[in-house]
Amino acid sequence: MKHNSLFLVIGFLFLIQVTSSLGQNKKLDRIAFGSCNRQDAPQPLWKPILADHPDLWVWMGDNIYGDSPIMDTLRAKYGRQNAHVEYQLLKESTPIIGIWDDHDYGINDGGKNYAQKKASRDLMFDFLSVPLDASERKREGGYAAYTYGEGNQQVKVILLDGRYFRDTLERIDRIYQINPTGQILGDAQWKWLENELKTSTARVNFIVSGIQILPTEHAYEKWANFPQEREKLLNLLSNSGVQNPILLSGDRHIAEIMKLVDSRFPKGIYEVTSSGLTHTWSGIAEEKNSLRISELIAKLNYGLASFDWNLNQLTLEIKGNEGIVLASQLIPLTTNQ
After folding, report:
1. Is the distance from CB of 283 to CB of 250 less than 8 angstroms?
2. CA 212 and chain centroid, separation
3. If I label 211, which of 10, 26, 37, 162 is the partner at 20 to 30 A Cα–Cα?
4. What gap in Å lies between CA 6 and CA 210, rounded to an integer?
């Protein structure tokens, strides 16, 4: 009997550990998020992130700089990040989820033809403590969705995999070319995403992408390099009836807040790019983006989404060293688009 009781206790503790790692059904008041994190560089932003006491941390890609087809190399780099003292404190206090971009995928600008994508995907899941029996591990790709809270305070986070299924993107004279018929998500992920949106009961729905979704004017990686995919995503968000969609992205080594207003989104749809946990643009520059409603920020940064459920509003912030607010946007939460 003593042995049986011991096994029950161990099983219960394991269940608690798995549940806490995902944080499902927990009400969210603050979500912190970021991208572009060199595991071998100084990481000064974990202190202000911890001071914000987020209820969830979301990795948005380039979570390490693996850049290698050798899985032992990627594994060692993930291990170095996991050993960072302040990141360990975050892991102990906060559920962590995320998706990759190219550098943690294993190859710069990589897509569906990367030979090590399945092995690399499994390493990412290990880094994120995704349970071995999770549904994400039983399919191709690294995409996932998590729902938190209940009733009028429910939040859904949809993590899109923009690497595993992505068609070729050419670069000529440092400018990424348009692939007018190419795919980013692939058929299976599109079908999954449509179902996740149409069945969502969440008051707020975050859609997370490693690369930017709304911008069309810069010459770097973005959804607009696959215009058919970008339009398909925006049309799906509009037609699904999903409440309060918010776009989050990384990759660019800058931060900015954007807003698109058109016939599909008469009240506007927002995107926050937070990129540069350890490094950003080395020089001061400007970049045209007619959808930008904040300053272009080239300082170390992370994002914070804070809910005021009593006032039915969401504040999106870009924050920097010592928690200084670099940009902010207040969004009223509606019951429909």
Report:
1. no
2. 11
3. 26
4. 43
What is the distance between the alpha carbons of residues 55 and 58, in angstroms, rounded to a whole number? 10
Q: What are the backbone dihedrals phi and psi of residue 315, each rounded to the nearest 5 degrees, phi first?
A: -110, 125
Pair of tokens at residue 50: 């911890």
How much is the pLDDT for 60?
Answer: 98
For domain 27-332, which architecture applies? 4-Layer Sandwich (3.60)
Tokens 């946990």: give the residue.
Answer: 277
For strand 204-209 and strand 171-172, is the pairing parallel, antiparallel, or unpaired?
unpaired
What digits encode the pLDDT tens for the residues 179-199?
999 999 999 999 999 999 999
Q: Tokens 């927002």 map to which residue? A: 270
Task: Please report the pLDDT score of residue 8 as a whole number.
Answer: 37
Query: How far is 44 from 319, CA to CA, in rounded Å?
Result: 12
Q: CA separation (Å) from 214 to 105, 199, 227, 290, 291?
A: 23, 24, 11, 10, 8
User: 214 and 64 in contact (C-beta within 8 Å)?
Assistant: no
Locate 271 and state its tokens. Answer: 């995107």
- Return the structure tokens found at 70: 């050798």
CB–CB of 327/317 below 8 Å? yes
User: Of 30, 36, 29, 20, which is closest to residue 301 (Cα–Cα)?
Assistant: 36
Token pair of 87 as six digits: 């990141």
Relative to beta strand 204-209, strand 245-249 is parallel
Distance of alpha carbon 114 from alpha carbon 121, whole angstroms: 11
From the list 192, 290, 183, the residue with the least C-alpha distance to 230 is 183
Low-confidence ranges of the chain (pLDDT < 70): 1-24, 284, 336-337
Rounded CA gap, 224 and 217, in Å?
Answer: 9
Distance CA 110, CA 117 (A): 9
Sign of CA dihedral 23, 29, 34, 37: negative
Residue 72 host element (H or E): helix 71-82
